[in-house]
Amino acid sequence: xxxxxxxxxxxxxxxxxxxxxxxxxxxxxxxxxxxxxxxxxxxxxxxxxxxxxxxxxxxxxxxxxxxxxxxxxxxxxxxxxxxxxxxxxxxxxxxxxxxxxxxxxxxxxxxxxxxxxxxxxxxxxxxxxxxxxxxxxxxxxxxxxxxxxxxxxxxxxxxxxxxxxxxxxxxxxxxxxxxxxxxxxxxxxxxxxxxxxxxxxxxxxxxxxxxxxxxxxxxxxxxxxxxxxxxxxxxxxxxxxxxxxxxxxxxxxxxxxxxxxxxxxxxxxxxxxxxxxxxxxxxxxxxxxxxxxxxxxxxxxxxxxxxxxxxxxxxxxxxxxxxxxxxxxxxxxxxxxxxxx
Length: 341
Ligand code: NQM
Hints:
The protein is an alpha+beta fold. The chain has two domains: 7-149 and 326-335, Diaminopimelate Epimerase, Chain A, domain 1, CATH 3.10.310.10; 168-317, Diaminopimelate Epimerase, Chain A, domain 1 (Roll). The chain has six helices and 17 strands. The chain has a 17-stranded mixed beta sheet that branches. The chain starts with 6 loop residues before the first strand and ends in a 6-residue tail after the last strand. The relative contact order is 0.15. The mean pLDDT is 96. The structure holds (1E)-4-oxobut-1-ene-1,2,4-tricarboxylic acid. (1E)-4-oxobut-1-ene-1,2,4-tricarboxylic acid binds at residues 16-17, 58-59, 95-98, 182, 231, 234, 253, 258, 262-265.
């Protein structure tokens, strides 16, 4: 690949996130070289990402790398890369369920998976964590209908409580550390002196709160065995629902506050709500029908998550989880990385 002639990519909105989708074969195979090219594509490091195509926010500084699957049980490999905005980093330590919504359509666009009328299912290996998901979407005439919903369903991880406990204490507060696809710390908003209904901007401007969140995050990184990961864990503050949903959420990701909530972040929070004794479960108004989706309220509206615990398992474990997203192809072309220094 010569960078001078650019790199083919499709820019997509995946759920509430946005970023370029690449075929792995169009990027350098060496990880350090690949990450360097990606930072130059996105315009990192720069708070405005002005010399690249990043959107100057963690939710729009994301990249999907897709290739035919090496695993016979799945169709494609999806590697998610979170790219720093002002800070120079590329990390593969987390999944992204929002960008996942665009992976099936991208696989069809690039001919990795044939479209089948009226709908196509793509089995996706989540390279970051070794988990898997299936995306099912409408392909009525052999091409993707981007106006139709995309159903994402997730296989169950073996362990969803990374510390082995339902409740831990972080900076003196009860916390549930959970990972059903996304390492997440669940706290009660009230324990942190906020209502949990503030806007992301109000929460980010609350210095006493952000200082405390930073301490909680450091403790959680160690306790959850994550090590050093600039985008983890997510920290969700729960409050009682106020728009007819199951619970209200505000999520630090982990420095900026999410404008909505991540997909696997939502799956992880919803899972915690079903575990007896988990922090914040007592604030939830669970639906009367046991299999009905849980509605997580967030700053921009709400998201419905279906999740079922396995009643036969001795430790909390899910049987399945899923939700519906949309994605849209915004632009297809060639991106030109900023020249290497
Ligand atoms: O949790 C943002 C997003 C995400 C992650 C973040 C996501 C997920 O909204 O699966 O989608 O938590 O950094 O894209």
